[in-house]
TrEMBL record:
InterPro entries: DUF6930 (IPR054216). Residues 4-119 form the DUF6930 domain. It comes from the Bacteria. It holds the Pfam family DUF6930. This is DUF6930 domain-containing protein.
Length: 546
């Protein structure tokens, strides 16, 4: 058929819905449904291989030539086809352009989606009556595989119901989850990273309520009760799933991962084949967990995050307005999809010894002509002459381990008729400004970022090739060093605790919960041999919190 073929002048709505499983056919199928929006006429449904653009194109050509099942319209090309989802529109746009058929995408086509709901029920009933509907997992579970298969079938059914009757791609739920409808749709359409879309549909089915007091999609399906027994058990478990933020502590690729709840310390063995292959030790995960007989299954609830970002993610969730009870996130999880738009930091936030974010800055001062800067600086308390034309401003260490000679606050050097001070935070730059503001012959000029040398390597990059594994004895020494350092930190001042040590704060009823959380979210240390686990449990026991 060419663009010279007859034109109907109509606009079609087209949707692809998952087909029910068919006995002795392992290839996933989907069904193309087409509705003429002008006349309301329906075209013959076409079953095709899932995701196959060639079969989809052939199915449409057949419909162009055959015309609708009923009605006065004859065969011919429509003016436009409005697809319910982006994938088929993207796959066929070029071919339909050749036929001068406009291509649009609109998830909200009430007449079309109503037809999907009717067709889904009728088709499943028809296949069951013919004896070709695959119901192998419906009754007796015979092991892990049966539970997993039933869970997969349940997910497919819930997505089909949601798409047919509830409009998950409407702006309201997208805004309620992602905070931005357009960016939410972009995430869902991203074929390279399906995680945001998976998390969103899980939230939509199990947490979203169209209005106050309304049932969720999952609750409606459960109330209806028209599911195989095994799927009903799983559906009930998923409705009551617990949402946690955890750290991967161990795994068996292709079988399970052990996830430690970073707030409660409880370790859950999750039987997720895909997750166990992609996760790594120390990775932070936000998931919903639910029992399946003797196993524990999981649903993605947020982005994966590096160990360093776990505490940041928890604080972001709380800032949105949610709370954790006994380590479990309570409520409807609205707006937690914003973590995909503004992900928790994926690199460590470096801090100086005062707990301030590190930022390399230069503070510039003008010097009066012929000013003897050496004699001027030596009159300022805490500034010492390094003997090489530079000076250092030191603060007392107050017993801080590793800083017995004092904590360096700034370095000074003279360049021409200026005195330059190098500091590593904004608060310290202001302290330097105040320190010299009343010194004769010195006038403050500016505070500006310290320029990096051209082609400077990243401060986080290893020079040359990636480091290889270190010898076992060196790894053991490193583990002991980090263990001792972590235990020693219990008696060091912590800015986030108002200057108290962990030990002092642990004795305060107001600060005990903060101390426990800070230690439980303490990140592991990365090494060429893999992460070194921090002695979090030992630290908590030492403080009487375990």
């Amino acid at each position: 058929m060419t663009k010279a073929a007859p034109r109907t002048g109509s606009t079609w709505g087209a949707v692809l819905m998952p087909a029910p499983p068919i006995k002795n056919d392992a290839l996933p199928k989907e069904i193309l449904l087409v509705l003429d929006h002008r006349s309301g006429s329906m075209y013959e449904p076409k079953m095709i291989a899932e995701g196959n653009p060639d079969e989809l194109a052939n199915a449409l050509l057949n419909l162009f030539e055959a015309g609708p099942l009923k009605g006065e319209e004859g065969a011919g090309l429509p003016r436009a086809i409005v697809f319910q989802s982006p994938r088929p529109a993207r796959q066929l746009r070029s071919a339909l352009d050749e036929l001068s058929i406009a291509v649009e995408v609109d998830s909200e086509q009430p007449g079309l989606m109503g037809m999907v709901a009717q067709m889904a029920e009728a088709l499943e009933a028809s296949l069951e009556a013919q004896g070709i509907l695959d119901t192998s997992e419906l009754d007796k579970p015979d092991g892990f595989g049966s539970w997993k298969e039933a869970d997969t079938r349940l997910t497919e059914h819930l997505i089909k119901v949601a798409m047919a009757k509830h409009g998950p791609l409407k702006s309201r739920p997208l805004v309620q989850y992602f905070g931005d409808a357009a960016r939410g749709r972009a995430f869902i359409e991203d074929e390279e990273d399906p995680t945001p879309g998976v998390a969103y549909f899980s939230w939509f089915v199990f947490r979203y309520r169209a209005r106050r007091g309304a049932l969720t999609v999952a609750e409606q399906v459960f109330t209806d009760g028209r599911l195989p027994a095994l799927q009903l058990l799983l559906l009930e478990a998923r409705i009551h799933a617990r949402c946690i933020v955890g750290r991967v502590v161990e795994m068996d690729p292709g079988a399970w991962i052990d996830l430690e709840n970073v707030l409660s310390g409880e370790v859950h063995r999750l039987h997720d084949l895909g997750l166990s292959r992609s996760a790594r030790e120390g990775l932070g995960l936000m998931v919903e967990i639910y029992p399946a007989d003797e196993w524990m299954f999981t649903m993605v609830a947020g982005p994966a995050m590096p160990s360093m970002a776990i505490d940041h993610a928890l604080r972001r969730i709380e800032a949105i307005g949610h709370e954790f009870e006994n380590g479990v996130l309570v409520g409807d999880r609205a707006h937690t999809g914003e973590l995909f738009i503004h992900p928790p930091m994926n690199a460590p936030m470096l801090q100086n010894t005062d707990g301030e974010p590190m930022e390399m800055l230069t503070v510039s001062f003008a010097l009066e002509p012929n000013e003897d800067i050496e004699s001027v600086l030596c009159t300022v308390d805490g500034i010492e002459d390094d003997g090489d034309g530079t000076w250092t401003w030191l603060a007392p260490s107050n017993g801080k381990a590793g800083f017995e000679n004092g904590v360096i606050l700034a370095h000074f050097e003279q360049v021409g008729d200026e005195l330059l001070a190098s500091v590593n935070s904004i608060p310290r730059s202001l302290k330097v400004k105040d320190l010299l503001s009343h010194v004769p012959g010195v006038k403050f000029l500016s505070i500006h970022p310290t320029p990096e040398p051209e082609n400077a390597p990243s401060p986080f990059a290893f020079p040359g090739a990636a480091p290889g594994a270190v010898p076992p004895e060196v790894q053991a020494q490193l583990e002991q060093l980090l263990h001792d350092r972590a235990m020693a930190s219990l008696d060091e001042s912590v800015p986030a605790l108002g200057g108290k040590t962990y030990r002092e704060a642990a004795r305060s009823p107001e600060l005990r919960a903060d101390v426990e959380r800070m230690i439980r979210t303490y990140p592991d240390a990365g090494t060429p041999n893999g992460p070194i686990r921090m002695p979090r449990q030992e630290m908590l026991r030492e403080l009487g919190l375990e």
